[in-house]
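User: If only I could read backbone structure tokens as easily as an amino acid sequence. Underneath my words sits a plain record pairing an amino acid chain with its backbone structure tokens. This is the protein in question:
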Amino acid sequence: MAALSLGSSFRLCVDIDSAAEPFRRLLQVAKVCEKCGIKIRNGRLCQTCGKYKRLGGVWHPLPPYGEVVYDDDGKPICHVCGMALDKLIEHTKRKHGLDSAAYRAEFGLMRKNARLTSPKYSDKMKDHVEDKPTWKRNFEAIHTGAKPCGRRNPHWSQQEINSRHDQQVEKSHKRWKRSSVKPAGDV
């Protein structure tokens, strides 16, 4: 127990060990991940970096400004932490808080040909999209000059069309009546 005197009329007695306990907890929370620098509670790596390491990931040197560098598997390397991932922009959104435009601007990657996904992932998505019939029709429509067909066409019956028309007319009449009614004192 230690006594602390704060002026002539006030004396504070505090147990130093009990007072230091909240600060010890803060110091435990103030640990940071060795690889990415975010705050963690325990261990050396955050959850994302630990999973990346368990799956065989390797941290690469950070790429130079304005260049996209790929690892041996063709995965782009993150300019912030050095991880090589299939979908780099998804990683930067979740891990670093940078969307595609912010990441490209921050690291000088504003060229349109700066590919930020692995070729394996790009091919997978191309195959997925090409199997969709809407994509095929829209692709053909664009190249033949026809109207794309991906929009919704509700096919309302004549009764539904008339009902919707009547509702709109009724609303406009109510608005017109409200705007045309004058107070009794104005003549």
In short: The chain has seven helices and four strands. The two ends are 87 Å apart (CA to CA).
